[in-house]
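I need you to check the entry underneath: sequence plus fold tokens. Let me know what the token row says about the fold.

>
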Amino acid sequence: MQKIWYTLFLEERPSISLSLFRMVVALTVGLHLIPTFFHLEDTYLSTALKTYNSSFFPIWFLKLVGKSPDSLVIFFVILFCISCFSMFIGLFSYVSCLIMTLCCYYFYALNDFAIGHILTWDILMVTLFLMCCAPFQGDYFSVDCLLKGDPSAYKTRRPFYLQRLLQMQVAFTYFYTGLYKISPPAGNWLTDNPIYYLMNYPVEGVTKLFLLKDFLAVHPQLCNVLGLTILFTELAMPVLLFNPRTRLSAIYLGIVFHITLILTLDVPSIFFFLFPPQLFLFIHPDHVLRWIEQKRLYNQNAQRSILVYDGNCQFCRMSVQQLRVMDLFNTLNLLDFQRLDNIQTLHPKLTRELAHSQIHLIEPDGNLYGGFDVFRRLCFTLPMLYPLIPIFYFPGAGIVGPWVYRWIAKNRYLFHFNKVCKDNACFR
């Protein structure tokens, strides 16, 4: 029994999937809650119409939160925005998760009408609570791992209990949703035909106008088959997901189910943003790590891009160390030009003066990029920089970006205390 418990919950496995899921949770919560801040007088301030969820919170807590002055509400709004962004980028990941979760519970207790008293938000609150049960959501895909500077951070192994709990949550959410469909007062999907009713007598704001709606509206038997298929699939989901032989098919099935749900019914965005990524947590972390190692090995033997930097500059070395951490698939060959006798062997247009002034990237096809354009290219190579693609390619970034980069490169001695670069000596 002890061995089974260890295998299911305590065995150490790579935590990279959980680190990526942290970003999904922060994005989901932010997209759901931040829009409610646009009109605070109608949502959370003393002028708002409020309702309270006494089935989720104890009465004493609702009364305590209900006494909040408007200044405290505004404070929590600012605190939430900061902590949500910090959790997304992985800066002080665990503390940010705790603070963001506290803010979510506060706003939910303050006015569940503004959030929309819905089952999906309750599920999200449970997800946030589980995320607070472990301090290692920022092992990778985070600023925290960049600050540590460990290139092998993606291989960090942690006890599996948090990922297992998140797996159990989504699996049994399916099961209890199916169970609800055959339990009063929801009706009985075994003997009734709710899909047919939705197609013919839709409640306003529930059913969307989709391609096959009119077809299903005149085929009750097909609607009945669809309803029973959905019911039995939901009830069987825990078995399908936890069985290694059916797991991959169940993940695909769940993703198709949620896409269909979004396209046909007016359901909360949480279904789309949270549930499909949570299904990917069923993929064994060792399989994810093995896939990464295979890509790293392939790129190691292939012709890679060469990143040329100044090894005499501490700030440059620190930046390159962070790029080494971000280079998940081993796509870069990092080269200190100070160790080369003839730098033009790398590229005929590259001189020592140019290499002193800014970082350079030589791609396998021979194209040479320098400064800001290097990071533009790396955005498509390093997964941790993917979120910055809209920023680096935002209109006007091609004008402002190079200027900012040149200033940082010229004054990089300001960012560290290396005696070699005192008074910008390494730049000269």
Notes: The chain has three domains: 1-159, 161-267, 303-424.
